Amino acid sequence: MARRPDRSARTARSGPTGTGTAVTGASPCPCGLSAAYGACCGRFHSGTAAAPTAELLMRSRYSAFAVRDQPYLLRSWDPATRPPAVGLDPTVRWTGLEILDTTDGSAFHTTGTVTFRARFTHRGARGSLHERSRFARHDGAWVYVDGTFVE
Prior knowledge:
The chain has helices at about 40-45, 55-65, 70-75; strands spanning about 90-105, 110-120, 125-140, 140-150.
């Protein structure tokens, strides 16, 4: 997911539904897969594993937005397109992710795309972000390159 222009500095981790409860290793993963956060995206965030596909990197980046993990967002961004910081707006709550399409992005590819819709609330108003993200391998690991908004 691309950087949002109105995000402020990193804040404490929050639950994927915006309840304010901390996300733990046993919590449901914000990305929507059935595994607990620690066994799903949490292992990528902690650095104990690397996302093996572009789609799993996309899911882990969505989860990083949901738990406000700016260091992971920056680590998983292609150095050629990475901003110096990612502002994370504490009033945005990411509430769901839907993967709409993937192209390439497996262990046998060097590039891939993931089209998704991410749902959120911002100050009580519901919204969604529809994006086609590009991914590439950098030093053997999947990284986010950039994205285009889909209308």
